[in-house]
């Protein structure tokens, strides 16, 4: 695996590969690599000839500078894990490399869906996320980009941004690949934040996947949106140590809440705090 730190170096290596007709997949991350990230790499390897990943903790998408400073950084261990997983090029840029000449400001806005759910909890987060993803796409120019279903709203907004940038489908599109959420043996979605959960808090964190399971079961029994919602919310009522922030059923195509009587696949999304740790999860439910 080659480690490169400049825009010029990564762009040169990628363009050499693309000239020979080979396909490039890109997996942007913020580091603190775990099995969830590695599943994205595995998916990329199946699709592309060259796999490029990046680690960049993007200051623009943090709501507080303290949060940005506290984000876990483990460059050496991350590089080892990514090399072992089969990444060909690891891009490790500095903030100046990504935002040169003082261009440290938002260039993309996430719109209406950017300010609800995760966006309501973290104002400006999605604008900063889209700004860096767009900048990284411009630099790497991948054929495929792989993101986790775990961050469903992020994926929705990236898909929306790409569609808006290429309305007629004239330019070569970047194909978004969605990787299923990787969970631990008890069902908890892997996240770099899980390390901050104490032994006592880990079972409490299972409230999120358990609530999603209950909603699925309610739908399988023929219940509608409100029955699924009630089944999930009851799990939180029974576990007050998991502080529910939002629980909603949205249409995956629009991220707008679904109505009772909806038929098809809806996405149940949830955010809750356990101690100091804020967790999110989601699941597709068929009505
Ligand atoms: P992050 O480093 O948190 O920005 O995440 C980088 C990518 O990994 C994003 O596309 C996430 O959606 C994805 N990801 C994070 N956790 C998981 C997980 N448990 N399963 C699958 N993908 C994940």
Automatic annotation (TrEMBL):
Q: Return the EC number.
A: 6.3.2.1
Query: Can you supply one Gene Ontology CC term for this chain's record?
Result: cytosol
Q: Which UniProt keywords apply?
A: ATP-binding, Ligase, Nucleotide-binding, Pantothenate biosynthesis
Q: Which Pfam families does its entry note?
A: Pantoate_ligase
**Known pathway:** Cofactor biosynthesis; (R)-pantothenate biosynthesis; (R)-pantothenate from (R)-pantoate and beta-alanine: step 1/1
UniProt xrefs under Gene3D superfamilies: HUPs, Pantoate-beta-alanine ligase, C-terminal domain
Molecular function GO terms recorded: ATP binding; pantoate-beta-alanine ligase activity
- Report the SUPFAM superfamilies cross-referenced here: Nucleotidylyl transferase
InterPro entries on file: Cyt_trans-like (IPR004821), Pantoate_ligase (IPR003721), Pantoate_ligase_C (IPR042176), Rossmann-like_a/b/a_fold (IPR014729)
> Which reaction(s) are listed as its catalytic activity?
(R)-pantoate + beta-alanine + ATP = (R)-pantothenate + AMP + diphosphate + H(+)
One GO-annotated biological process of the protein:
pantothenate biosynthetic process
For this protein, the record's NCBIfam families field holds:
cyt_tran_rel (TIGR00125), panC (TIGR00018)
As for family, the record states:
Belongs to the pantothenate synthetase family.
Query: What name is this protein filed under?
Result: pantoate--beta-alanine ligase (AMP-forming)
Organism in which the protein naturally occurs:
freshwater metagenome
Which lineage do the record's taxonomy fields give for this organism? Answer: unclassified sequences, metagenomes, ecological metagenomes
